[in-house]
């Protein structure tokens, strides 16, 4: 009989120690070690003389190609984020803040699949079947093909999967499930890792897509071991500000599609509704002739988005410690742009409070928005408004030069579609290749940030 041994596992970083410690030696967090009982291996695996099966080795040219048969969920923005739908045998992890709408999204999409004829098994460790039906009724997701199960033992869940043979599986949420092989509590590092691995093995064997809902920590990362994100094929974050009705579904990892692809939803009483033209929504409430307001273009996966960036520059009331705050944009990047404007353009921003906000609750991170962010700050500082029909696209270097950006043609197509008249772009662009002869969009190439400010101010 195998000997039962005990070890202590850190619930923050997964560090293993043979004895309990008050402070984890890995992440140096206090009181995070939890006891886990594991069985030692009684015997070694039997292998052939070569240590493996020779038949499993073959030239890459003889490997049969993978056919990506996708199941369409019926939610257009969800399918876009996944790369076209659910791939057979794929494992998808969805994380987000509590109450952001993760369960609503999956129940709504699985209801659409069930109505179209697919058999879906929805297993919840957090809600009873009556609670799930109440929400499904509100979302219009009632169907005989949508099977509901309330169970938290993963072995029992896999037995139900074997019995009903569903086309897709949903586990809500993975932190509530446990395996009988471990004695630790559900949600611990060991339980999350073992449960995910058992699901991984089962869905690959059955060629059945599975979707997992994951809790996140206070830092915004998905709770559990990092190996959880390595095991799955797709990692998706559901983002959004609680004060806004719009939600962003962002793919961080996708083995079967592009990243970072996004889907935009609006939260309504009847559920999540996809936004086909998010640029129109983000620009719908833009104020007219307001200093510090600029339109920028951001690429989110294969989708160009035009959003409004707002800046407010005021005299600081605290001597020597001006406030610098940003919402939806990296704070360090904003500080870098302020330093470039002070050094290269001579703007005296040292004693000013500076606030930057991306309207609509969207988060942008690519360098192509640098020129727009800098122009918004300078416009508020000088109290000069920019022509509302102008869009700015370009990365700013440390010497104040405007550098080229990726996928400029797709950005300009979106700019022209929304009726803007001119666009300030890097000087390295080829206007003849980007625009057709009938285009009414006026491209203004600039080499430096100083030239860009001369154009718009």
What does this structure look like?
It is built from twelve helices and 23 strands. A nine-stranded mixed sheet has the order 8-7-9-10-6-11-12-13-14, with helices on both faces. A seven-stranded mixed sheet has the order 17-18-16-15-19-22-23.
CATH topology category name of the largest domain: Rossmann fold
Helix-residue proportion: 25-40%
Estimated share of beta-strand residues: 25-35%
Spell out the CATH superfamily of the largest domain: P-loop containing nucleotide triphosphate hydrolases
Determine the number of helices (DSSP H or I, runs of at least 4 residues).
Answer: 12
In whole angstroms, how far apart are the ends?
Answer: 81 Å
Structural category: alpha/beta
Architecture per CATH nomenclature, i.e. the level-2 architecture of the largest domain = 3-Layer(aba) Sandwich
The total number of structural domains is: 3
Any idea what the radius of gyration is?
26 Å
Keyphrases for this structure?
3 domains; alpha/beta; single chain; globular; nine-stranded mixed sheet; 457 residues; seven-stranded mixed sheet; Rossmann fold; Ribosomal Protein S5, domain 2
What is the secondary structure topology, with strand pairs?
Blueprint: E1 4-10, E2 16-17, E3 33-39, E4 70-71, H1 76-82, E5 86-87, E6 91-96, H2 102-115, E7 120-124, H3 129-139, E8 146-150, H4 154-164, E9 168-172, H5 189-206, E10 210-214, H6 227-231, E11 234-239, E12 246-254, E13 262-268, E14 271-274, H7 278-283, E15 293-300, E16 303-315, E17 324-327, H8 331-344, E18 352-358, H9 370-382, E19 390-392, E20 395-396, E21 402-403, H10 408-417, E22 422-426, H11 431-434, E23 442-446, H12 449-456
Parallel strand pairs: 6-10, 6-11, 7-8, 7-9, 9-10, 15-19, 17-18, 19-22, 22-23
Antiparallel strand pairs: 1-2, 1-3, 4-5, 11-12, 12-13, 13-14, 15-16, 16-18, 20-21
């Amino acid at each position: 009989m195998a000997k039962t041994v005990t070890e202590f596992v850190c619930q923050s970083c997964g560090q293993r120690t043979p004895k309990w410690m008050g402070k984890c030696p890995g992440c140096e967090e206090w009181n995070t070690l939890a006891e886990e009982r594991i069985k030692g291996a009684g015997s070694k695996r039997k292998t052939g003389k070569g240590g493996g099966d020779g038949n499993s080795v073959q030239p890459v040219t003889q490997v049969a190609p993978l056919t990506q048969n996708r199941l369409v969920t019926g939610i257009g923005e969800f399918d876009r984020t996944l790369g076209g739908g659910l791939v057979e045998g794929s494992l998808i992890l969805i994380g987000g803040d509590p109450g952001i709408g993760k369960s609503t999204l999956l129940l709504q999409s699985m209801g659409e699949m069930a109505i179209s004829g697919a058999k879906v098994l929805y297993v919840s460790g957090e809600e009873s079947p009556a609670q799930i039906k109440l929400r499904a009724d509100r979302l219009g997701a009632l169907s005989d093909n949508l099977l509901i199960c309330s169970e938290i033992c993963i072995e029992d869940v896999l037995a139900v999967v074997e019995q009903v043979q569903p086309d897709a599986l949903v586990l809500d949420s993975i932190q509530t499930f446990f395996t009988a092989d471990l004695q630790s509590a559900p949600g611990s590092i060991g339980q999350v890792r073992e449960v995910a691995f058992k699901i991984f093995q089962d869905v690959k064997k059955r060629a059945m897509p599975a979707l997992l809902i994951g809790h996140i920590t206070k830092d915004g990362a998905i709770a559990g071991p990092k190996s959880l994100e390595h095991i799955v094929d797709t990692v998706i974050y559901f983002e959004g500000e609680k004060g806004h009705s719009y939600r962003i579904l962002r793919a961080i990892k996708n083995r079967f599609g592009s990243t970072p692809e996004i889907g935009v939803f609006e939260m309504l009483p009847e559920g999540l509704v996809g936004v086909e033209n998010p640029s129109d929504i983000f620009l719908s409430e833009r104020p007219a002739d307001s200093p510090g307001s600029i339109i920028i273009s951001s690429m989110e996966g294969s989708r160009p988005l035009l959003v409004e960036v707002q800046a407010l520059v005021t005299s600081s009331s605290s001597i020597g410690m001006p406030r610098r705050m940003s919402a939806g944009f990296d704070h360090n990047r904003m500080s870098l742009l302020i330093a470039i404007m002070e050094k290269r353009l001579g703007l005296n921003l040292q004693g000013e409070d500076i606030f930057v906000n991306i309207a609509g609750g969207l988060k942008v991170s690519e360098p192509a928005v640098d020129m727009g962010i800098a122009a918004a700050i300078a416009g508020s500082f000088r109290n000069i408004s920019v022509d509302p029909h102008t869009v700015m696209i370009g990365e700013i270097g440390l010497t104040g030069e405007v550098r080229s950006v990726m996928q400029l043609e797709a950005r300009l197509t979106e700019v022209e579609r929304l009726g803007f008249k001119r666009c300030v772009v890097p000087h390295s662009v080829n206007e003849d290749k980007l625009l057709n002869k009938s285009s009414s969009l006026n491209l203004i190439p600039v080499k430096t940030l100083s030239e860009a400010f001369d154009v718009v101010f």
